[in-house]
Design brief:
- By secondary structure, this protein is an all-alpha fold.
- The protein has one domain.
- Helices cover 72% and strands 0% of the residues.
- The chain is built from eleven helices and no strands.
- The longest helix is centred in the middle third of the chain and has 46 residues.
- The two termini are 21 Å apart.
- Keywords: Membrane, Transmembrane, Transmembrane helix.
- It comes from Solanum stoloniferum.
- This is Glycerophosphoryl diester phosphodiesterase membrane domain-containing protein.
C-alpha cells in the first residue's frame, strides 16, 4: 500500500470520524458529557471566575462595570497577566495550578475513553460504556508519563535555544560590541529565536500527534510512543498538520472569544446569572465539546490510515475479520484506495 500515493486529506479524516461517532452517538455523548463538557465549560469560565474571586470589588453575580471592559484582543481589566508575572498572587497561582491539574486529568480521561471507543468502532465492534471506562485503568498512567516526557522535551528545547541566545549576546559583548537591552538587534534576535522555537515545537507536535492514541491502542508509553508516532506519521505529515490546525484554530477561537466576551456580556445583561450569559456559556461549551470529540476521533482515524499506509493494517484486519472482505476508503469523493483482505 505504501507503493503508491494516498488520496486521504483532512475531509476524509473528518468524514470517517463523523461516521464512527454517528454510529455510536449515545455512547460518545455519554463520554463527552462525562469529560469533555466539564473541560469545555472550565476553559470558557476560567477567566471570569478568576476575575470575580481575586479582584477587589468584584462579584460573581453582579460584577462591577470597571471589571468588565475586556475584549479578545485588549484588556483594561485590573487583572494584568504581565503585572502578575512580576507580582504573583499566591491565591491566583493556586487557582491556576488547581485548574491546570483538573484540565489535564479531564483531557487524559477523555483521550483514554474516546480513543478506545473510536478504535473499536473503526472495526465495527460493539462499544460499551463500561469497557471504555475500564480502559482508563490501563492507559491513564501511561498517558500521564507520555505527557510528562513530551513536555520535558519541549522545555529542554526552549531552554536550549534560550541558552544559545544568551551565548550569542555574551559573545558579541566579549568581542567588544555594546549591546543595549533596548537595542533593535537584540529584539530581532529574540524574535528570530522565538520563531525558530515555535517551528521546532510545531514540527515535533505534528510528529507526535498520534502518541496518545498509540498509548491507548498499543500499550506503549513515554518516549517509545513518541518514536512510534513519528514513524507512523511519515508520509502523512501534511494531513496531521491540517488536522491540528483545523481543530486548534476553531477550538482556540471559540474558547478564547467566548471566554473574553463573557465578561462584557455579563455587564450588558445585568450579571453572570442572566439568561443571555447562561445561554452563551451552554451553547459555547456544547460546540467546544463537539469539536474536541471530533478532534480525538479524527486522531484515531488518522492513526489507522497511517498504519494502512505503512502496510501494517492488512494483517490486523485479516485477524479481525477472517473470511471477509474489508474495505478502507481513503477518499469518498475520488476513486478510493482500498485495503482488501481475504483469508481462506
Amino acid at each position: 500500500m505504501s507503493g503508491y500515493p494516498h488520496t486521504l486529506n483532512l475531509w476524509g479524516v473528518l468524514s470517517q470520524s463523523k461516521r464512527i461517532i454517528n454510529a455510536h452517538s449515545r455512547h460518545f455523548l455519554a463520554l463527552s458529557v462525562s469529560f469533555l463538557l466539564p473541560l469545555s465549560f472550565s476553559l470558557i469560565i476560567y477567566h471570569t471566575l478568576q476575575t470575580a474571586l481575586f479582584h477587589s470589588g468584584s462579584n460573581l453575580f453582579h460584577p462591577h462595570p470597571s471589571h468588565l471592559s475586556f475584549s479578545f484582543f485588549t484588556s483594561t481589566d485590573p487583572y494584568d497577566p504581565i503585572r502578575n508575572l512580576t507580582q504573583p498572587d499566591p491565591q491566583s497561582l493556586l487557582l491556576l495550578l488547581a485548574y491546570t491539574l483538573l484540565a489535564a486529568v479531564l483531557s487524559l480521561l477523555a483521550l483514554a475513553t474516546i480513543s478506545y471507543s473510536t478504535f473499536h468502532g473503526f472495526y465495527g465492534r460493539p462499544v460499551k460504556l463500561v469497557s471504555s471506562m475500564k480502559s482508563v485503568l490501563y492507559s491513564f498512567l501511561p498517558l500521564v508519563a507520555t505527557l510528562i516526557v513530551s513536555r520535558v522535551i519541549y522545555a529542554l528545547i526552549v531552554l536550549l535555544f534560550g541558552l544559545l541566545a544568551v551565548i550569542v549576546v555574551q559573545g558579541v559583548q566579549f568581542l567588544g560590541f555594546e549591546v543595549g537591552y533596548d537595542s533593535n538587534y537584540l529584539l530581532g534576535l529574540g524574535v528570530f529565536v522565538g520563531v525558530v522555537v515555535v517551528l521546532v515545537v510545531m514540527w515535533l507536535h505534528v510528529n507526535w500527534s498520534l502518541a496518545y492514541v498509540i498509548v491507548v491502542v498499543e500499550s506503549k508509553w513515554g518516549y517509545e510512543a513518541l518514536q512510534r508516532s513519528a514513524y507512523l506519521v511519515k508520509g502523512m505529515r501534511w494531513v496531521a498538520l491540517s488536522v491540528l490546525l483545523f481543530f486548534g484554530v476553531l477550538i482556540g477561537l471559540l474558547v478564547g472569544g467566548c471566554s473574553s466576551f463573557l465578561v462584557s456580556v455579563g455587564a450588558a445583561s445585568g450579571g453572570w446569572t442572566s439568561f443571555g450569559v447562561i445561554l452563551q456559556m451552554v451553547v459555547s461549551s456544547g460546540f467546544a465539546t463537539l469539536l474536541m470529540l471530533q478532534n480525538i476521533a479524527a486522531s484515531v482515524v488518522l492513526y489507522m490510515y497511517c498504519k494502512a499506509l505503512h502496510g501494517e493494517l492488512a494483517l490486523d484486519i485479516a485477524e479481525e475479520f477472517a473470511r471477509e472482505y474489508v474495505y478502507l476508503p481513503f477518499d469518498n469523493e475520488k476513486v478510493p484506495h482500498v485495503v482488501c483482505v481475504v483469508q481462506s
